[in-house]
Amino acid sequence: DGGITQSPKYLFRKEGQNVTLSCEQNLNHDAMYWYRQDPGQGLRLIYYSQIVNDFQKGDIAEGYSVSREKKESFPLTVTSAQKNPTAFYLCASSIGGVETQYFGPGTRLLVL
Amino acid sequence: QKEVEQNSGPLSVPEGAIASLNCTYSDRVSQSFFWYRQYSGKSPELIMSIYSNGDKEDGRFTAQLNKASQYVSLLIRDSQPSDSATYLCAVRNDYKLSFGAGTTVTVRA
Q: Per the CB < 8 Å rule, is B88 touching A42?
């Protein structure tokens, strides 16, 4: 089956800890995106990548880092510099432009 | 001013009625507009896209766009309990989509 997978479904972070959220797609899409969703708010763009080995900051990149070493993978690291990381994190991909974004199932990050 | 604003919910409609959702956007040059449906605890799924002024119909869904008024709407006809979800309006701004906060719809049986 083609699609986007995110793991884990739930992730717990301790104070001062870096954690990495996984995003994998087998749709052969060029572009991949990371969003954050807080209760009662829309999705906010953290980072995006339009091609392997290249990525750009979105609106709320501070405290996050990404890599794009393979076309199918776009992991997101939430660093200790992100002071309010509790949120629902969504990865998306598209074959070209942003119009046809497909979302993964999401990872819910909680702070212990 | 937020880039994309949606009418505050929640919106409760009886089964079989029409649910009307509204969205306004601030960037006059935006050209592409989208409606996503998000069930509780799930990821958004695209249900409608619209690029030209006027109406676009897809089954029970109708999207309406008025670029002069910077306004997009979504009508859900013959609402079903399965339509109970949060509906997100999204507008393309260059390389990204800007999302509204969403309107939660509850369809009463």
A: yes
